[in-house]
């Protein structure tokens, strides 16, 4: 296996074998994950799938809590995909895009905090799922973090983290790094999530960074646009930064896809609803590869040279599935031309 596009040197295989933490085999944690596997729908379960990817790429993402939040079943399933990719010498190992996406959000979040030139800021993670940034990013030490998601997702996450803290010595040092963390139980498909957020202590007039990672494309078009418009409204009150990822149309048209909302031109959509200074990157771009996307034959590298309007690859007829990483800002101090 080469090092091209895989994120690690050939002589240091990161996935020689799957080593699961003992905590996953305790009765308490097994019960929690059994409930997730039997009671949650695919959208909610995607939170554990994302955690599994971060756990197996933790040599890059630095997310030690991810394996507990992912659970045995999702870790084993994801590991098998990686193992097959390694055997087949794939130019793109499963999870590398998730690792790139995680690192992009991390670096842009820290840069946005620094740009505020203030000691405090609010971070809102919409559709937070099994995200652990409040526990692993030291740049959040002066920030109030709000995680918004379905009540059952937030409760299971809290229970799993509590189990890790109480039942396993190896997680004792995984303390919260954010100034504060508030979990807000809300359904983003309903219009009352901003009200619930504010009742939980969110201050609309305070500098805010909104993180929408892996969430917009699960929404219906009307719901996704409504969410973005609401954030744009907040930007008329205070300095605001939006960090979000968008799928293009081809990505949502795949068979059995659970994705709905797409935008081939998010850098045109966002200004039309009130955002300014919109910057778009594709996976593989200089600020969106992190040394993990070297192989020219990698799918995303091949697509970067094609116009975004192209939906089918001219070489083989496959759909041009793109992921756009977008940063936008808004401020009441910006005067419209």
UniProtKB/TrEMBL annotation:
Transmembrane segments: none annotated. The keyword Nucleotide-binding does not apply. GO terms for biological process: methylation. It holds the Pfam family LCM. This is S-adenosyl-L-methionine-dependent methyltransferase. Keywords: Coiled coil, Methyltransferase, Transferase. GO terms for molecular function: methyltransferase activity. PANTHER family: LEUCINE CARBOXYL METHYLTRANSFERASE (PTHR43619:SF8), S-ADENOSYL-L-METHIONINE-DEPENDENT METHYLTRANSFERASE YKTD-RELATED (PTHR43619). Residues 154-181 form a coiled coil. It comes from the Eukaryota. Belongs to the UPF0677 family. SUPFAM superfamilies: S-adenosyl-L-methionine-dependent methyltransferases. The keyword Methyltransferase applies.
